[in-house]
Design a protein that fits this description.
heterodimer; A: mainly beta; B: 105 residues; 11 strands
């Protein structure tokens, strides 16, 4: 049983559209993360959270909001999607924030036309 | 902040050959993960290895904290090893740009 799941797996939207990416983890982990991956780059951290109701800014937060509704669920929101946000998005979870191993979901491929 | 340099950027092998992938870090190393990314994009965690040497089948990861580097050794490569290998460090996982490995039959 996959411990970190993401939905949708693929999404196409238009410029200015509203998109929500969902992530659920069943690891009972406190920390959850959203990353994006673009060609020529490794993954880059967008937002992360260390518990329900908490949100921390990552390295590339512009244009993104996020919300952690429960320990299990972490959402990434693009309220006015732009073509520059076309990317592969990964969610991850870890037991602790300090140098703990992170476990990744399968990714969501987002295309903004 | 932490920067991660991976080398080589790409590597082509004949099946059966060995591969050595390297990661070098700009600041002190305190967390280290190696990932394999399938051609379709999904990530497979290979090693969580903050220090020392770990083995898994044909794979060996060695992290030397004092030298701020980590390596991934693949022995007797197979065509199914083809894909992108990523290393990452720091608790927020600063990623390298990856090594694209192609193993020819």
């Amino acid at each position: 049983e996959a411990a970190v799941t993401q939905s949708p797996r693929n999404k196409v939207t238009v410029t200015g559209g509203n998109v929500t990416l969902s992530c659920r983890q069943t690891n009972s982990h406190n920390y959850m993360y959203w990353y994006r991956q673009d060609t020529g780059h490794g993954l880059r951290l967008i937002h992360y959270s260390y518990g329900a109701g908490n949100l921390q800014i990552g390295d590339v937060p512009d244009g993104y909001k996020a919300t952690r509704t429960t320990q299990e669920d972490f959402f990434l929101l693009l309220e006015l999607a732009s073509p520059s946000q076309t990317s592969l998005y990964f969610c991850a979870s870890s037991d602790a924030g300090n140098y703990a191993e992170q476990f990744f979901g399968p990714g969501t491929r987002l295309t903004v036309l | 902040g932490q920067q991660v340099q991976q080398s080589p950027a790409s590597l082509v092998l004949q099946e059966g050959e060995n591969a050595e992938l390297q990661c070098n870090f700009s600041t002190s190393l305190n967390s280290m993960q190696w990932f394999y990314q399938r051609p379709g994009g999904s990530l497979v965690s290979l090693f969580y290895n903050p220090s020392g040497t770990k083995h898994s089948g044909r794979l060996t990861s060695t992290t030397v904290i004092k030298e701020r580097r980590s390596s991934l050794h693949i022995s007797s490569s197979q065509t199914t090893d083809s894909g992108t290998y990523l290393c990452a460090s720091s608790w927020q996982l600063i990623f390298g740009s990856g090594t694209q490995l192609t193993v020819m039959p």
